[in-house]
């Protein structure tokens, strides 16, 4: 027998099996699975009454909140496409995405109207605006429906339409390297197989409580809106990653699992209540999205001796998790001998194939040494870029998706990321991974955050430049930093330029934006030449 793999399946089960169990905590709101399922059906009916149907795009501008979690079900069960937009983008970027995707409906948190007000008149395709959250009595610069009124007044019974498992369910725009951001199309089949595969590795169950530290506007919320719902666990929402607030909530709600980009954990480890809070419920911390400094994993291992701290790797185009350093029981058993394997990107999820390939597309040996472009294939790999078939065929070649990341694979299948192709620094003809230099710098106790980029150099072509934020009250000068780096790195990898700054530019997920750093460095150099 074959039945379509549909995202709506997860909540359909949750509504019955976990009806009275806590589904989501969001500020002062607490909802059970029964209540969430009821609200979702009503909102789907409301959207249908507004004319939203199969293939229509429904965009969200929202912090993490229970209504955005509801969107993960209310929109796709209509056959429509959910488009959560990164709220750290500028209004013109948001207008580009709304026009490119031809979104017919935009659901906006009232606290974010300032992002939408300047572009409201330049979106000819948008037919419906819905407001949610914030102060319902607030005076707004444009009109729209109220989410809660729509939910309250819509009929409770939802009649699902026919949906194909290959229909697009979610759309996420990546920042991209070219001028045009690309919409990554994830189908029901992609998302369901991703949930099955990740649950097989993540050991998530109905006693789990996951804090959504990763924004739900970032690629499928790393899969947690589906995996946790599928097994009836408790979702905990925080609107933004404020480390003190996060620690308080981890303690109060008994959070068991948390997913972070490394910069979030840096903030946690350096926040005043890091040592004081009861974090004993935590069983797992997974890092992803960017290279994790070993010093950070060491700090978490010490503070959370009962929890498993490990890395994972993925991209928007792979729904997103491709590999995780968690699945083997041996990894749990012995924390110190598993330290280096937990720091790798891990092994592929079941159902996913990962290879490293040379420039001609030939697979390289899994010897832990050969470095090539990481390529993937499987049911979790996206359907293509929205309305950009040429870009799709640039990245999916001969049935393999080319990630743009360089890495190696060892004989047990552990993938190690060397660097993004475009972040590798070519200095004096040698390839140097920015990540390797960053890891060495992070080992210095005064360093809070750092990023290494390649900058033009007359003699070497490119030279590594380190941009560093120090811990509050710490001191470090260039000479001392260079000496530290020399003790850890080959001579040609030691940064030729060092700049101390107050903050590093970050994207919506908290990842450091090297693109922006390169731009501002270019400007610095131009100003210096003009002088
Ligand atoms: P972007 O960060 O370019 O906006 P994504 O959010 O899809 O796009 O992030 C995917 C990228 O994040 C990967 O291509 C890779 O460069 C980086 N990444 C993800 N996980 C890891 C990891 N564990 N180590 C190093 N880099 C990672």
Topology:
Elements: H1 8-17, E1 22-26, E2 29-32, H2 33-49, E3 57-61, H3 66-74, E4 81-84, H4 91-101, E5 105-109, H5 113-116, E6 128-132, E7 145-146, H6 147-153, E8 168-174, E9 182-187, H7 188-202, E10 209-212, H8 224-230, E11 234-237, H9 243-253, E12 257-260, H10 262-269, E13 284-287, H11 294-303, E14 308-314, E15 321-324, H12 329-333, H13 339-343, E16 347-348, E17 352-357, E18 372-378, E19 384-385, H14 389-395, E20 396-397, E21 400-409, E22 415-420, E23 425-427, E24 430-432, H15 434-442, E25 447-457, E26 461-470, H16 478-486, E27 497-500, H17 514-530
Parallel strand pairs: 1-11, 3-4, 3-5, 5-6, 6-7, 10-11, 10-12, 12-13, 13-14, 26-27
Antiparallel strand pairs: 1-2, 8-9, 9-19, 14-15, 15-16, 17-18, 18-21, 20-21, 21-22, 23-24, 25-26
Architecture overview:
The protein has 531 residues and is α/β, with parallel strands linked by helices. It folds into 3 domains: 33-189, Rossmann fold (3-Layer(aba) Sandwich); 241-420, 3-Layer(aba) Sandwich (Rossmann fold); 424-530, GMP Synthetase, Chain A, domain 3 (2-Layer Sandwich), CATH 3.30.300.30. The chain is 30% helix and 26% strand. The protein has 17 helices and 27 strands. Strands 2-1-11-10-12-13-14-15-16 form a 9-stranded mixed β-sheet, sandwiched between helices. Strands 4-3-5-6-7 form a 5-stranded parallel β-sheet. Strands 17, 18, 20, 21 and 22 form a 5-stranded antiparallel β-sheet that branches. A hairpin with a 7-residue loop joins strand 8 and strand 9. Helix 1 (8-17) packs parallel to helix 8 and helix 9 (243-253) packs across helix 10 (262-269). The longest helix is centred in the first third of the chain and has 17 residues, at 33-49. The mean pLDDT is 94. It binds adenosine-5'-diphosphate (ADP). Adenosine-5'-diphosphate is lined by residues 174-175, 219, 288-291, 311, 313-316, 345, 403-405, 417, 420, 511.
């Amino acid at each position: 027998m074959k039945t379509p793999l549909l995202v709506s399946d997860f909540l359909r089960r949750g509504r019955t099996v976990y009806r009275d169990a806590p589904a989501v905590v969001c500020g002062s709101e607490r909802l059970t699975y029964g209540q969430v399922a009821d609200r979702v059906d009503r909102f789907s009916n409301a959207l249908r009454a507004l004319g939203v149907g199969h293939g229509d795009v429904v965009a969200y501008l929202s912090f993490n909140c229970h209504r955005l979690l509801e969107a993960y079900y209310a929109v796709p069960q209509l056959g429509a496409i959910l488009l959560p937009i990164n709220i750290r983008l500028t209004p013109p970027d948001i207008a580009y995405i709304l026009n490119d995707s031809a979104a017919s409906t935009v659901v906006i948190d009232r606290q974010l109207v300032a992002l939408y007000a300047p572009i409201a008149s330049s979106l000819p395709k948008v037919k419906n605006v819905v407001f949610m959250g914030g102060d319902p009595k607030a005076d707004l610069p444009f009109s729209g429906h109220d989410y809660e009124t729509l939910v309250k007044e819509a009929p409770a019974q939802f009649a699902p339409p026919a949906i194909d498992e290959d229909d697009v369910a979610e759309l996420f725009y990546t920042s991209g390297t070219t001028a045009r951001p690309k919409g990554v199309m994830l189908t029901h089949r992609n998302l369901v197989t991703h949930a099955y595969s990740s649950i097989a590795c993540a050991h998530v169950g109905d006693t789990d409580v996951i804090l959504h530290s990763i924004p739900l506007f970032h690629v499928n919320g790393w899969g947690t809106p589906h995996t946790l719902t599928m097994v009836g666990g408790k979702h905990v929402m925080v609107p933004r990653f404020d480390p003190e607030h996060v620690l308080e909530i981890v303690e109060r709600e008994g959070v068991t699992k948390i997913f972070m980009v490394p910069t979030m954990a840096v903030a946690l480890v350096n926040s005043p209540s890091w040592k004081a809070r009861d974090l004993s419920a935590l069983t797992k911390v997974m890092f992803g999205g960017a290279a994790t400094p070993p010093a950070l994993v060491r700090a978490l291992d010490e503070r959370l001796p009962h929890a498993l701290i490990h890395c994972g790797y993925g991209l928007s185009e792979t729904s997103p998790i491709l590999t995780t350093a968690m699945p083997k029981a041996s990894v749990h058993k012995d924390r110190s001998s598993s330290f280096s394997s937990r720091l790798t990107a891990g092994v592929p999820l079941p159902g996913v194939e990962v290879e490293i390939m040379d420039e001609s597309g030939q697979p390289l040996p899994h010897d832990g040494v050969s470095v090539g472009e990481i390529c993937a294939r499987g049911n979790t790999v996206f359907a293509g870029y929205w309305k950009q078939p040429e870009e799709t065929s640039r990245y999916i070649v001969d049935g393999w998706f080319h990630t743009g990341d360089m890495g190696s694979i060892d004989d047990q299948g552990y993938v190690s990321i060397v660097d993004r192709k475009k972040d590798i620094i070519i200095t004096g003809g040698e390839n140097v991974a920015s990540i390797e230099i960053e890891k060495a710098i992070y080992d210095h106790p005064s360093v809070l955050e750092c990023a290494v980029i390649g900058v033009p150099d007359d003699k070497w072509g490119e030279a590594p430049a380190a941009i560093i934020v120090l811990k509050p009250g710490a001191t470090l000068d260039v000479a001392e930093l260079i000496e530290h780096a020399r003790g850890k790195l080959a001579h040609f990898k030691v940064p030729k330029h060092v700049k101390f700054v107050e903050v590093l530019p970050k994207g919506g997920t908290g990842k450091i934006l090297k693109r922006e750093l390169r731009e501002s460095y270019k400007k610095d150099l131009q100003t210096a030449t003009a002088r």
